[in-house]
Amino acid sequence: MATRLACRRFRAPLSRRRCPPQALAGPAAVRLSSSGGLGPARAACRGPLVRCGGFVGGRWVQAAAAFPVRDPASGAELSQVADCGVAEARAAVRTAYEAGSAWSALPAKERSTLLRKWYNLMIEHKDDLAKIITAENGKPLKEAHGEILYSASFLEWFAEEARRIYGDIISPPAKDRRMLVLKQPVGVAAIITPWNFPSAMITRKVGAALAAGCTVVVKPAEDTPLSALALAELADQAGIPAGVYNVVPCSRQQAAAVGEVFCTDPLVAKISFTGSTATGKILLRHAAGTVKRVSMELGGHAPFIVFDSANVDKAVAGALASKYRNSGQTCVCTNRFLVQKGIHDAFVNKFAQAIKKELHVGNGFDEGTTQGPLINEKAVEKVETHIHDAVSQGAAIVTGGKRHSYGKNFFEPTLLCNVTTGMLCTQEETFGPLAPVIKFDTEEEALAIANSANVGLAGYFYSQDPAQIWRVAERLEVGMVGVNEGILSAVESPFGGIKQSGLGREGSKYGIDEYLEIKYVCFGGL
Ligand code: NAP
Questions:
Q1: Is the CB of 279 under 6 A from ligand 1?
Q2: Which of 202, 204, 279, 281 to mutate to test the pocket of ligand 1 (most atoms within 8 A of CB)?
Q3: What is the rounded CA–CA span in Å between residue 251 and residue 450?
Q4: What DSSP character marks residue 275?
Q5: Which residues are catalytic?
Q6: Triad 203, 204, 207: Cα angle to 5°
Q7: Residue nearest to atom 46 of ligand 1 (CA)
Q8: What residue owns the CA closest to ligand 1's atom 26?
Q9: Per-residue pLDDT tens digits for 135-152
Q10: Is residue 86 within 8 Å of 261, Cβ to Cβ?
Q11: CA–CA distance from 170 to each of 216, 471, 517 (Å)?
Q12: Is the CB of 255 under 6 A from ligand 1?
């Protein structure tokens, strides 16, 4: 009881006492399978994987204050979580640093086995983990399940990749020399993640880092720390050694200070960030002082081009998937539709019909919901601003266009036509359920509009002309291209962008390189 109260009030700064599951959440008897009158989001946050402390050196630690985690669907408080600050971040970095030599010295096969155990536990607990995502992020439970499988797949993939880190033997230029290349872990990786994929954005980095022999400190988003902490609980159960995976949750007020510790502490070797381009630039500036390795997965502004030769039904299906997943809150979501004039009207009509028929706004826990809430009020305001700006400049609302009566963070899936390139929604990421359609004449014109952005993460196009497919795939200025396909993420493929969408790649055979140094060794006098 004493421990529970201490955890509830967060009196003890960086206490080493264990913070039990459900410490803030009431009796252990409340089970995930039954909401017990609490509502499904709050019930999901009574489960054994729900933790309230930071996780440093294999222990649940407290901080001087706490911050609330809210259900974006109702605004209800789900939990209070330790608000870690500069002191806790520094302690976590030191802990990760101290754990680094033992972890990197483990044979790759042993690191692989531990990652695989972590993966198995994620699969075993996939239902509870999905409910935590829906509770704190709002996405439909079916999408949350999909995210957990996707998230776990990075632990599985990198468990396999851990054993396939190879160096090189180089032909020497002199008889008495032998030359080789070693691959070694970079050291402590500090990881900052967003709320839109609260689990997968962590494992995509952490899987690679741990496989390479690095240790990590993770700062999850203020809105969604519970998924990161649930992963810590499972890492602990899997036997990942203390200090290898550390989590310092914090409120938005502390984020800049914690980020600065990560970027300036000499014990940190690598910053890996997923989030907005604006925040990425701040972190890059801080990281320059100690010349840290960086990986940046930043914002997108994906074009989706429909050429006259496209199969319109397939293009509509791809458009629905790429635009409205997670209520339009993914970095690879289409942000601008460019539709050639010969197919324009058919596409817009069929897209509007599909939106009305197939998208259902509601609570993510309700069967049949495809569109949950946006993450917060600010996100809703941005969608509204983009629509008002477009309409004031001549765009027409085909469907949607306003907040949804379901609740204050809910917005109607919206389709606009008569959109032009001077409008805000075609110049910056909306990050919401808004599909603006620009009509174009020629391939050159479409490519010029698509490539006018200063970011280049994903791009999509629909065409049945093989020569055009090659031309456009090569000329689109993005890191990832979907050709007649609206969903392209997979653990096997390299995820990342060009221009101001970032630096480096995650997942795939390339992802592990972000956490490895190349060391050249020359043997002389042989
Ligand atoms: P964000 O505001 O940049 O936040 C991302 C993370 O950075 C959060 O943990 C946030 O903490 C933290 N943060 C914010 N300001 C910081 C600072 N000054 N120093 C250190 N950390 C700081 O991004 P967001 O709006 O949450 O996420 C959406 C953006 O992420 C979109 O632009 C989207 O395209 C991008 N994204 C990119 C990818 C990709 O793989 N390329 C994937 C997903 C999302 P708080 O939560 O406490 O603010």
A1: yes
A2: 279
A3: 36
A4: S
A5: 297, 331
A6: 60
A7: 221
A8: 194
A9: 999 999 999 999 999 999
A10: yes
A11: 32, 38, 17
A12: yes
Answer whether 282 contacts ligand 1 (Cβ < 6 A): yes
> Rounded to two decimals, what is the model's pTM?
0.93
Q: 10 CB under 6 A from ligand 1?
A: no
Kindly give the parts of the chain with pLDDT less than 50. Answer: 1-35
Half-sphere exposure of 476 (CA within 13 A, CB side): 26
Task: Outline where 138-180 has alpha helix (H).
Answer: 141-161
Which residue shows structure tokens 């935590």? 132
281 touches ligand 1 (CB under 6 Å): no
Residues with Cβ within 8 Å of 240's Cβ and at least 6 positions away in sequence, in order, are 114, 118, 210
Distance from the alpha carbon of residue 278 to the mean position of ligand 1, in angstroms: 9
Q: From the CB of residue 367, how many other CB atoms can be counted at a distance below 10 Å?
A: 9
The reply to whether ligand 1 has any atom less than 6 angstroms from the CB of 136 is no
Query: How many residues in total does the chain contain?
Result: 526
Q: Which residues of 442-479 are buried (b: 16+ CB within 10 A; e: fewer)?
A: ebeebbebbeebebbbbbbbbbeeeeebeebeeebbbb
pLDDT (tens digit, 9 = 90+) per residue, 333-383? 999 999 999 999 999 999 999 999 999 999 999 999 999 999 999 999 999
Nearest CA to ligand 1 atom 24: 275
Among 192, 251, 382, the mutation site with the greatest number of ligand 1 atoms within 8 A of its Cβ is 192
Question: Do 137 and 72 touch, CB atoms closer than 8 A?
Answer: yes
Distances from the Cα of 58 to the Cα of 19, 243, 252, angstroms? 11, 6, 25
Q: Whose CA is nearest to atom 41 of ligand 1?
A: 297
Distances (CA, A) of 185 to 162, 167, 391: 11, 12, 52
Residue type, 229: L
Q: Any residues with CB less than 8 A from the CB of 339 and at least 6 apart, and which?
A: 305, 306, 347, 348, 437, 438, 439, 440
Atom 39 of ligand 1 has which residue's CA nearest to it? 297
Q: How far is the CA of 276 from the centre of ligand 1 (A)?
A: 5
